[in-house]
Amino acid sequence: MKVTAQPAADTLTLVLDGELDASSAVVLDTELNKPDLLTYRKVLIDCQKLSYISSAGLGVFISHLQRLQDSDVKLVFYNMQEKVFNVFEILGLDSLMNIVPTVEEAQTV
After folding, report:
1. pLDDT tens over the chain, length 109 residues
2. Strands of 2-8's sheet, edge to edge?
3. 34: phi then psi, degrees, rounded to nearest 5
4. Which of 41, 65, 70, 88 has the most beta carbons within 10 angstroms of its beta carbon?
5. Total structural domains in the chain?
């Protein structure tokens, strides 16, 4: 999986491309652990090219969620494919995390 960071003003967009599983979760975890991440008001996760997410991938987001919330940084997912969204929904994570259909909506959350 490839993670591309796109900083812009007070928002950081992370574009996920490929499969987020145990082996690639380390790449995402490294991005979310960067100290400057907490200087942004929002972290947008573009899931358009995310074709699969495992429990390890979900665990990365869950492990960073509280730290982001404590720092008033909003984590917003958008462009999520239905099969990836279903994983979030089955586990009840859709009620814990902001998941919206488009980048326009993500920017207004």
Report:
1. 999 999 999 999 999 999 999 999 999 999 999 999 999 999 999 999 999 999 999 999 999 999 999 999 999 999 999 999 999 999 999 999 999 999 999 999 9
2. 2-8, 11-20, 42-53, 74-78, 98-100
3. -65, 135
4. 88
5. 1
Q: What is the CATH number of the domain that holds 86?
A: 3.30.750.24
CA pair distance 96, 63, nearest whole angstrom: 13
The pairing of strands 11-20 and 42-53 is: parallel
Tokens standing for 4?
Answer: 């591309």
Rounded Cα gap, residues 74 and 11, in angstroms: 9
Record the pTM.
0.95
Task: Please report, as a single letter, which amino acid is at residue 24.
Answer: S
DSSP string, 35-49: GGGGGSSEEEEEEEE
